Amino acid sequence: MTNTELNLAGKSGYILTMGEILVEIMASERGQSFRRPGTLLGPYASGAPAIFIDQAAKSGGRCAMIGCVGDDDFGALNVERLRTDGVEVSGISVVEAATTGSAFVTYRDDGDRDFVYNITNSASVFLSAKRLNKDLLKQAAHFHVMGSSLFSPSIIDAMKKAVETVKANGGTVSFDPNVRKEMLRIPEMKGALDFILDYTDIFLPSGHEVMLLTSATDEKGAIDELLERGVREIVVKRGKDGCSHFNGKAELHLAALPVQEIDPTGAGDCFGGAYIACRSQGLSIEQSLKYAIAAGARAVTFRGPMEGTATLAQLDEFVATLSE
Ligand code: ATP
Ligand code: MG
User: Which residues form a coiled coil (predicted)?
Assistant: First the structure.
């Protein structure tokens, strides 16, 4: 544990991420089942790291992404969207032999979601160390890892190389485990998450993920263990119950904004993107958390995981209308 506050604005360069790019296609009604025909909405731009980097770029960060899409309209939709929102897309390869990833979502009556994924058999599988864009890596001041991206040995290998390189160049790393429990039964997966955690400066778990990679039996014990291990900041995301920030010196617990949730997908990714971009521009922890909370809340008021991404000015406006 060190005593100085983590400075993300000290090194100039890209906020870089790498991982799956996909479209999301969703049921138009709650309770709709994929076991019979129904009306679908989409395609919407998606993929956890893509949502993260889109929000980070809109928040004013200098951003780039490494990924793979197929030579199809789903890929073009995503790349165009990221480019328009200010993300450097030269690290995204078009793999002619593959199809862009997709996810089909239904919403249960209680709001829970079920997914049919085409990711592990999509263009994203072609991500490997040889697709690591050296120019972008060299220019990265910060690298963000989404646990959901670590679904193949070659991607795990590429991700390890990326975090090692960025850290060796004096950059920082953030890590959102964004992982389903079943994934941890794959031994390489647990090992990969542990490896990434050793390089992590900012850890961004959901509430139930805090203890995932620790031996602790409660959240406080897990936070202490993570800080002891060298993680500098832990931001716990708690959905409509807000978030908490720990750095070994102070604790902050902030409420969520009161909004009507329309589609929860993407809130955590938008939260993370806004937080990292704000810290990279020198905003305080508290100010950055406020924008992250606003980005998470705004995201859930839109159908489609990337449709709620917003600039800091739009987030200010959004918060102002909520308090009217
Ligand atoms: P996911 O389950 O998609 O991985 P996550 O656990 O990473 O999501 P959440 O905690 O759901 O992330 O959301 C991140 C932040 O967005 C929350 O801390 C909160 O500030 C905001 N948020 C999420 N859901 C809501 C909501 N229903 N109302 C208001 N704010 C919300
Ligand atoms: Mg998440």
Answer: none
Ligand 1 atom, smallest distance to 257 CA: 29
Output the CA 281–ligand 1 centroid distance in Å.
Answer: 23
**Spacing, Cα 268 to ligand 2 middle (Å):** 4
pTM attached to this predicted model: 0.97
Burial of 89 (0-12, 13-18, 19+ CB in 10 A): buried
Could you tell me the residue ranges of all domains in the chain?
A: 11-19+47-94+131-316
Taking the domain 11-19+47-94+131-316, which CATH number applies? 3.40.1190.20
Of all ligands present, the nearest one to the C-alpha of 264 is 1
Name the helix (H) or strand (E) containing 281. none
Q: Taking ligand 2, which is a single-atom ion, which protein residues have CB atoms under 5 Å away?
A: 178, 268
Tokens standing for 231?
A: 């993680």
Q: Per residue in 4-48, pLDDT tens?
A: 889 999 999 999 999 999 999 999 999 999 999 999 999 999 999
- Which residues contact residue 182 at a Cβ distance below 8 angstroms, ignoring those fewer than 6 apart? none
